[in-house]
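[job 4471] stage=fold_predict status=RUNNING
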Amino acid sequence: MYMEKMNFVQELTWRGMIHQVMPGTEEQLQKEMTSAYLGIDPTADSLHIGHLVGVMMLRHFQRCGHKPYALIGGATGMIGDPSGKSKERVLIDEDMLRHNQECLRKQLAKFLDFDSDAPNAAVLVNNYDWMKEFSFLDFIRNVGKLITVNYMMSKDSVKRRLSGENGADGMSFTEFTYQLLQGYDFLHLNETANCKLQLGGADQWGNITTGTELIRKVTGNEAYALTCPLITKADGKKFGKTESGNVWLDPKRTSPYKFYQFWLNVTDEDAKRYIRIFTSLSKEEIEALEAEQAEAPHLRALQKRLAQEITVMVHSQADFELAVAASNLLFSNGGGEELRKFDEETLLQIFESVPTIEVSKEAFGEGMKAVDMLAEGFGISKGEFRKLAQGGGIAVNKAKLAAFDQEITATDLLLGKYLIAQKGKKNYFLVTVK
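[job 4471] inference complete, writing structure tokens
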């Protein structure tokens, strides 16, 4: 991943990933391999796609030949960052913190090279490790005296909370000190790892510049800041949220199928932005895809490639292929064998919008005739069912019925309890035997 000829600032610029950059940053990065860090909230045991902008910044940073530090905010996570929030965060204990850190490291390893012997191999750190022994008295004596209250009060995140903006209910002293703690992280990494740059979202600018101010006062060393825009959808709504909540990277929280579907279903306008931010495709590859999309918008080349790249990166090639098979299932004539590859969660998600009927185990017994089991579910008479079946218009588990009164037995049930019934090309319902 060491590609020192790439210019990081230029790379992020064409990708639409720069909001603010401190003067001198680009010159520093062109001068030598530079270390930078980005903080990650450890209050859950999985990243969600809202974290991915920052993670991709680190990925692009490493691809450009620089050394990324992913900082797990163990100490700061116990306090809560007031930036962009109107309420205090629920705090976590150390056991939960360590569990979450290990889970996040495994996910980050899919984006960053931690394990090679390259000079720019990524490093994972946790600010709890250097903050846990720091006494309150030591902190206010050695760090607190360096930054004035006037300076801290001038930050937008503090102003918004104190003014009651967006329903904010004030700010505790604990949260008020957050920018000092984040600033100290930058100072610590600058002194111990020669870390000269902090990356973050646009809402982090105030916290990051507090760090550069601390470094200037304590050591006089060089320190820089670069932030990316907060990502929204084309309609202005918050990126990464769906009606059912966050889209997680952990397959137990969000299945690879659901994850793939999220990216596949973004708008054309969003796909143009997201494919730059959330993939490592080159400018030329993306422009070729845009031209393809312009020629045949209905083929959704951008969405398909975006969904492919990010699903393979977060999950695997096999998960991507299964997600594609699941997505195509509703619109294909075949697929009976594919159905048996899906786990229960994915199967139910594929057919979550189709009508369902239940058949009791007692009524099912050793088996039932298709006409008795399915006609009512389709809302048709047995006579009509017979005609449709004889014309090849009824399928069970994507296989056309050989006869209208074909026996459905336990061996036909998917996962021992499900049956997918289909009338014509698009009329489905799900049978659950229980």
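[job 4471] summary: The chain has 22 helices and 15 strands.
[job 4471] exit 0
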